[in-house]
């Protein structure tokens, strides 16, 4: 790794840069411990059918309860984990934990788990999914895997084969963060996705409602063309929800419908009851 020469490139390497590199290394070392030390936790965010408001499922979102820094969000450590094989450990831990928890829910909601591209390239993800389903006893129909296009872009032929193996088990596949990255029609045509999730950035404050509406209509048309439902992510206002409803969008997820929460809190709210006789 090239070492900075502050004398030669004063504008590129400020002291804060070194600081950042150090912090990153420390965090990376901490993360290796975190998995063993049981510092990773899972939050669940509700996904609802727009027309009826009924719960369709929950997306599992990992958190890192760092002993001194408090809760660290996935965007701040998943990319770090993806630099090494740590992501494989974390990914498998999340999948196993989520399936083991969800099988005990009295309500048979779907659970969606995010997959990293590394899990496709560097592990036998179809085998892992099959093993986890068998070990935990979760019916495959209750599991959905969320992938982005960048996840499958590296080795499309292999991804296609693996995704078909997973689908053959009865597990469903969601195309996450749609509209960012590649967003090619070819992905939808070639890969067996069961739903499209419109990226939350389209519902951010910087978007005009005209623009958001145009994007929503375009993705809904795609959903129709491929005969799969469309879910909108990052829904924060009732105006957004009414617009989606009027446009005929199927499902939504966002702070308005429910924030990511610990399972214990969801149980306290009565949305989920646990089966203890297992
Ligand atoms: P994602 O899969 O697109 O997950 C949705 C993200 O949007 C979550 O962020 C969620 O908290 C956030 N969100 C939900 N509703 C709203 C809203 O109304 N407004 C706003 N502004 N945000 C909302 P989170 O939990 O920070 O996760 C970020 C990303 O980290 C996820 O994006 C996913 O790509 C990744 N991630 C999370 N858990 C895992 C995991 O177990 N494995 C892998 N590989 N990636 C994960
Ligand atoms: Mg997701
Ligand atoms: Mg997303
Ligand atoms: Mg994402």
TrEMBL record:
<feature type="domain" description="EAL">
    <location>
        <begin position="24"/>
        <end position="274"/>
    </location>
</feature>
<protein>
    <submittedName>
        <fullName>Bifunctional diguanylate cyclase/phosphodiesterase</fullName>
    </submittedName>
</protein>
